[in-house]
Amino acid sequence: xxxxxxxxxxxxxxxxxxxxxxxxxxxxxxxxxHTDPDYAAATPFGRTLVQGLYLLAVVMRAVDEAVPGxxxxxxxxxxxxxxxxxxxxxxxxxxxxPGELTVEATVDGRPVVVGTAVDPRHAxxxxxxxxxxx
Length: 134
Known about the structure:
single chain, alpha+beta, Thiol Ester Dehydrase, Chain A, 30% helix
């Protein structure tokens, strides 16, 4: 029997160069690969890339939209995201693992950020985890 997952939130963002430059100014992420289109064009990526912290902020927005107060978010960056890409984050509930959320961000259907989060509505207390009673 296959268990289906429930989509709790979807957030989509298309990054412009102005977005990337502004985020770089407030975050300190002003490396040439992010803010210098001429420099970035000469790299193997061929264009400027979105800062990882900016991507994580969009992921966190999706997780918070899905489950306000979610904790223990863990993500892995698996591919670069560039200017003009449509970055789509989907947060899903896992019926076979209550309290566990999966996070997947894609560009053109390919994963670029993957991870998990904990839904605090299902988190066991320390006492429950230890098997004791209060």
